[in-house]
Amino acid sequence: MLTLEMAIQKIQQFPPEQRNKVIEYIEFLEFQAHRQQEKQPQTPLEQNQDFFALAGIWEGKNITLDDIRKDAWGQENQ
Question: Whose CA is closest to 31, among 23, 43, 19?
Fold first, then answer.
C-alpha cells in the first residue's frame, strides 16, 4: 500500500473535528507553497549569458588544474 493511501485510510478513521483540522493544515501548506512560488523571481528560460564572460578569471594567478581538482575532490582522491 502506498504511503498516501495509508495516510488517507488513517485520516478517514479520525473523528470529524480532527479530519477538519487535517484539511485546514493541508490548505495552509498549499497557501504557503503558493506564497513561496510568488516570492521567487521568475527567470526567463532563455537567458542571454555570455559563455566567455568568465574566460581568463584565473589569468595571472598561480592556480593549476590539479590545484582545483584537489580542492574539489580532496587529497585522497588524487
Answer: 23
